[in-house]
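Researcher: Please predict.
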Amino acid sequence: MDYQEAIQIIKEKSCDCNRTFLVSGNGGVDKTRLFISTNGTICRFIPRSQKRGYSISFETVSSWKSLTPVESVHDERKMVEKFKRYASKATFPSAFVRKCINADITKGCHENHLTTGCGVDGQIITMKCIEKYAPYAVKAFQEALQSRTPYHSYRFPFQGYEGTLWVEIAGKDDGYNKAGDVNAGFSKEYIGCGNGYYYALINEDAFIGIDKD
């Protein structure tokens, strides 16, 4: 595994309540707690410590085959409940919203097909936040949502990325969407690039993180 790739995974997947990862390498799979030091190196926590650890060499990291965060059942349930809670506020018809509301809290977001499993899973970006960067695009988006008409914005600066808003309306039943369903979202992509992070509209006031590429 590339060292910088490992750093990115640890930054995206860890939080104050969970920094445990499954590390797959030549010796099998090992569960360990990892963090990034102030000088930008990958470190392993010493046992029973939340602050101290030691650096892991570039050679060791290069032998890793995969790096996966360990999420507790409790955390998974809380995340699915978050999707359900925000979706319950929606007043527009949407296949995604229905899927959120009907999600099984005994399963994770990925198992419920709510997300692909990435660093922005469940992250909320509000309409008011986007409006600070692109007020005219947000106004056009809201008008399209209300009138149930398609809309696709220009790319606009957003927190070091380029943002885009879109609304699509399902024309017929297709087994997932029902005629008239709203498919809408927000993307923040790297400047001058088509890759980035994607958020689905979960109610009139908020988008929720579901995917990246």
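Model: The CA atoms of residues 161 and 190 lie 5 Å apart.
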